[in-house]
Amino acid sequence: MGNSTGSTVDDLQAVEMHLWYKKFMTECPSGQLTLHEFKQFFGLRGLDPEANAYIEQMFRTFDMNKDGYIDFMEYVAALSLVMRGKMEHKLRWYFRLYDVDGNGCIDRHELLNIIKAIRAINGSDAQDLTAEEFTNRVFDRIDVNGDGELSLEEFVEGARSDDDFMEVMVKSLDLTHIVAMIHNRRHSI
After folding, report:
1. Most C-beta atoms within 10 A of its C-beta, which of 33, 56, 126, 146?
2. Contact (CB, 8 A) for 115 and 168
3. What is the pLDDT of residue 124?
4. Which CATH code of 1.10.10.10, 1.10.238.10, 3.30.40.230, 3.40.50.300 fits the domain covering 9-84?
5. Can you tell me the distance from the alpha carbon of 135 to that of 114, in angstroms, rounded to the nearest whole number?
6. pLDDT mean over 33-49
7. pLDDT of res. 62
């Protein structure tokens, strides 16, 4: 009986992977997604400068081999991490995404721009705190050594202990609409 359950899970994963592949190849017949195609693929058009910069950073983070394209394996690895990965791995990935200049820490300016971008993309401007206030609050709470930069360790531990910050990160990569789009198109492909 255990085998039939495992088989069912494997079958579901195989079906889902096949759907992702069909979607990817339908939208990107070359098998390599450019930044422009990435924005179209995820329905991201007419973004303000902060949101556009965030999407470009997300693209660069998904492009693991840094060749300027996202191939199917990079696409699946990113979706799998975001949707099913362990929290520790997700937090490390978020850190890489938020560390725009790649210097190994996140400064206030980087976090502020990310928060603004997330709000612009999600259409959530009506918040209790402005993006600046939220950024300051995050730094007040999780910048343990007070140097104005978040190290990987501060970021991971802080995210685990600050529910508001964790919620923002989860929303920043909420791909449920992507999964829904893939499943909705399954019959049309």
Report:
1. 33
2. yes
3. 62
4. 1.10.238.10
5. 10
6. 78
7. 87
**Residue 34 one-letter amino acid:** T
Q: Which residue has the tokens 């499943």?
A: 183
The per-residue pLDDT for 181 is 47
Task: For residues 14 and 111, give the distance between their C-alpha atoms in angstroms, rounded to a whole number.
Answer: 37
CA distances to 133, 136, 154, 184 from 140, in Å:
10, 6, 12, 43
pTM: 0.69
The better pLDDT of the pair 49, 186 is held by 49
